[in-house]
Amino acid sequence: MGAGGDGSVTRKAADKKKSLSIEKVPVLTSVKDDLTVLRYMWFGKPSGSDHAARLESFYGPQAKAYDKFRANFLWGRKPMLAACAARLKGRKNLVWVDLGGGTGENVDMMSKFIPLENFKAVYVVDLCHSLCEVSRQKVKSKGWKNVHVVEGDACAFRPPEGQATLITFSYSLTMIPPFHQVVDQAESYLSGDGYMGVTDFFVSGRFDLPLRQMPWHRRFFWRSIFDIDNIDIGPERRAYLETKLERVYERNSEGSIPYVPYLRAPYYIWIGQKHTDGHATHDVKVERPPLFPPTFLYTQSWEDPEPDMKVMDINPSDTVLTLTSGGCNALNLLVNGAGKVVSVDCNPAQSSLLELKKVAIQQLDHADVWKLFGEGRHPQAAEIFEDKLAPFLSETAYSFWSKRLWYFQQGLYYQGGMGKLCWVLQIIFRMLGLGKTMERLTSAPTIEEQRKVWDSNHLVHFIKHGPKPLVHIFRKIVTFALFNRAVLWFGGGVPMKQLALILADNISVDTYIARTLDGVAENSCLRHHNYFYYNCLMGKFLPDNCPTYLTATGFQSLKAGKVDSLVVSTNFFLDELRSRIYTKVILMDHVDWLDLGKAQELATALREQVAPGGIVIWRSASLNPPYASLIRTAGFEIRRVSSAEAGYMDRVNMYSSFFVAQRKPLNGAAAAVGKKQ
Fold it and tell me: Among the three residues 274, 297, 332, which one is the final residue of a domain in this structure?
């Protein structure tokens, strides 16, 4: 029995050893293949009498290991294909020409985004015999009936159908010396509704677009490295593409190189189409202002849109300028019928948040948009982002969100300055034994029930009715710990100039905050009608208590085309104000942030850029903001619509006053001048 047991153990040990040795074989083979590829990349020298021979000498020895190694090196392939596929979504009988398609790996990748049955024909064109052989084997093993491998010169190829819906160069354009000729040939058979997708390594020109620009030492280093392998990554190819086609999408990035630490090779993704009546645009490189956090301050807009709609008379003829903040109110303007909305913010993170919301509405269904921005969590956020959202985001927005997709795992509404403040406050409430009170407040079915919960809380009762000296000390301690100047700025977005306005009204910070919270608790039902504070306390919205863009009807109206009229701009407010004429302008609390000199400059610009009869609204932390007279003098009739003197102004209740101003009609002389202009 004992001997049998020992034998069994011995056999198991032998089997385990054998299994481990078998597992090591593929690993060793893989490393050997990778080293072979690296040897030819770094030390191989292409040779031969013509370009085909040079390609064969370079790629032939590494053809079988090509796909595996390039999967961790050619970082632009997948997002380029995803961006092309997203623009061809729902179309049938497509013709795709993959120039320099090599092993046909792009076809396999594309099948993850578009069913290959949607293609009438796919042509993988390459001049290298060894790579074409790998491609033919792949086509046969995969059973692709509509995929054709063409061993030949891309400069001479033309699809039998006469036109192609999609043409791609995946890390191949830099390998084609007569690039003018191949681009001309490809452009000649690109259909009018088709796209050309390009991804490749690059260096910028000495003077280039801001998001392409590189310092001289990077340009010199990378161009020299690739030149060893007869690969020209200079800016000329992309520049020529843009003389032939209109750019519709671009991303510039960098990716790691296997077995080469620290170095990250620059690459770009570019998609173009036949020239239309429009013109190509490019991202403007915008740095976040000093003292701003590296992310957004607000995840939602902290201005109640209901009073705004009552005084603004929004209609399809309106061009509205608003500050972005969380972007909810910009979308609400479109839901309520604005013809065009320009949403501006100097913080690129706020613009990236609104841009993501806009693209999500355009590309996703309501269920996914609700998970992302209603619940603030989505288990498939990364996949949805790469496949459906990234292809339509600006480079700035892509760069921001690609590093922060974990926001949708931890909860979007606990991120950013105010999100972190809400998270900390929730923890403190629970530590103080207010967890159940918080739950009861957010689930109270009526305002009467909510008042009972609020007024019966021991801490609220103490603050309202306790001994004044003790209450005073308690409030000062809480203000110092939770609402000091640093927290007010990084958590609440309250700058020092706005804080000075509060204090100028002879009201302390603790009294101001107490008035805000007590006014909301006593007058606005969190569960059914106040999504602002419900979100703060619960970290999400509810289907019947959310911003209008998240409601089923609001979402559908935006997706039907209204959201296309949203312009998201990262800029200073005054610069965007001067760029066009507006019928409506929403200043939010922006002027509270300015000194009187800048406020005068803004008032003058409002006079010049707001159409006669146009409406301007703003909120202020001051009951009587000193700049109101400047706007009046600039040619506006102004009135204070409401104030927080009675303790409650609107569902947010964070401001002291709400103003509306209307641009006075031009007088006769001015009107005559205006007509001549």
Answer: 274
CA-based nearest residue to 351, from 585, 549, 571: 571
Q: Would 655 be classed as within a structural domain?
A: no
**Considering the domain boundaries, does residue 297 fall inside one?**
no
Q: Determine the structural domain holding residue 161 and report its residue range.
A: 61-274
Backbone angles phi, psi at 88, to 5 degrees: -110, 10
The 10s digit of each residue's pLDDT in 407-463 is 999 999 999 888 888 888 888 888 877 888 889 999 999 999 999 998 888 777 677
Q: Per the domain annotation, does 554 fall within a domain? A: no
Distances (CA, A) of 97 to 121, 391, 605: 8, 20, 52
Domain end position, chosen among 505, 538, 571 = 538
| Structural domains counted in the chain | 2
Contacts of 131 (CB under 8 A, 6+ apart): 59, 63, 66, 102, 103
> What count of other Cβ atoms lies within 10 Å of the Cβ of residue 295?
21
At 64, the pLDDT band (50, 70, 90 cuts) reads low
**Bridge partners (DSSP) listed for residue 166:** 96, 195
pLDDT at 552 over 90: yes
Of 357, 366, 368, 348, nearest in space to 329 by CA: 357
Q: Residues 56-80: what's their mean pLDDT?
A: 73
pLDDT, mean over the chain:
87
Contact 253, 266 (CB under 8 A): yes
Q: Mean pLDDT throughout 658-662?
A: 97
What would the mean pLDDT of 81-101 be, rounded to a whole number?
Answer: 95
